[in-house]
Amino acid sequence: MPLKFFHPRFWLTWFGIGFLRLIILLPWRWQMAIGKVIGKLLYRALPTRRQISCINLRIAFPKLSSTEVNQLNRQHFISMGRGLIEAAVGWWGSEAQIEKLTHVEGLEHVEKALDSEDKNGRVILLGVHFSSIEVGARILAKRMPVHAVYRPHQNKLIEYLVALKRDTQYGKVIPKDKIREMIKSIKDGFPAWYATDQNFRGKGSILVPFFGVDAPTNPGTARLAKMTGAKVIPSITVRLIDDAQGRNGYLVRFSPPVEDFPSDDAMHDTTRLNQTLEEAITEFPDQYLWTHKRYKHYQTENKDFYKDYLRENETDCS
After folding, report:
1. For 155-171, how does the pLDDT look when each residue is reduced to its tens digit (9 = 90+)?
2. What is the pLDDT of residues 215-254, one digit of tens each?
């Protein structure tokens, strides 16, 4: 490990990593209870993120009352707190522990697509940024040599450690700007996990409705599918705590491939994928990453969508 990571500026990060390593030794119920406490603390400690999340929830669920939005926002931060612990479970948790908590649905859709002759066994897994994303990647990698596309972390120590764990546990990790690597992985028959549900201002960005409001969006999924001939299969990982079937742990669900995709219209294709994402998010609203500025730079580079929203709309987001 590079000596620079032992500099005092990384000591707080090391403390957090050590704390998480200890927590994953506890039973899962205890982990979730501690995650709930962490989430409540984050809700109080991060007022700006709390406000961003509140605005996003108001946009996505306009029929909810202010009380209901604020309650959902609190539940979201609890989910984020649990997600921090789940990231550690994904990186360092035991195989036995994770498998005991795993519930998989729809894996046959991926298996059938990989064996498909007309598409040469090429698959793009359309991902969603739910809070259990890291443990979900660990579960996926256990079942297939998935190649995951990711955005590098700003904290250099976390990026180093995460990249190290992902490289050893997953089939391969690909930085989001390495397009040629993505194409090669897909053409070589490796399922590529690819999520385009975050704000995107890169080359080719288009404005596509996301919960009814235009958001800068990456149309890359349709382009990759067209270049590789891959089938696009929606995939989610969400947390289950005493659901209707009495299940606890993590649901990894694959949906049937998106039909008649892609077309020759990038706007149409990307809108269809956003609608698919919205359906999954609406089913598990508290677990989605609402603290992300999804509508940042909407319409113009100099427009602060979130400040304008607060100024133009009556809201008790605080």
Report:
1. 777 777 777 776 677 66
2. 999 999 999 999 999 999 999 999 999 888 889 999 999 9
Q: Which residue has the higher pLDDT, 311 or 269?
A: 269
CA–CA distance, 133 with 83 (Å, rounded to integer) = 8
| Cis peptide, bond prior to residue 262, ω within 30 of zero | yes
List the domain boundaries for the chain: 7-312
The answer to whether the bond into 209 is cis (omega within 30° of 0) is: no
Q: What angle do CA 151, 277, 233 make, to 5 degrees?
A: 80
Single out the residue of 316, 286, 306 nearest to residue 77, CA to CA: 286
Helices marked H in the chain — which ranges?
A: 11-23, 28-45, 47-60, 66-92, 95-100, 107-114, 133-143, 156-169, 179-187, 220-228, 266-283, 305-312
Largest CA distance in the chain: 56
> What whole-number distance in Å separates Cα of residue 123 and Cα of residue 110?
7
Partners of residue 216 on adjacent β-strands = 207
Report the alpha-carbon distance of residue 160 to residue 312 in Å, rounded. 42
Task: Assign 9 to helix, strand or coil.
Answer: helix
Pair 217, 298: CB distance under 8 Å: no
Tokens coding 18: 């050590």
Q: Which residue has the tokens 């008790």?
A: 316
Pair 247, 103: CB distance under 8 Å:
yes
The whole-model pTM stands at 0.90
For Cα atoms 126, 53, 72, give the angle at the middle one, nearest 5 degrees. 90
The rounded mean pLDDT for the chain is 88
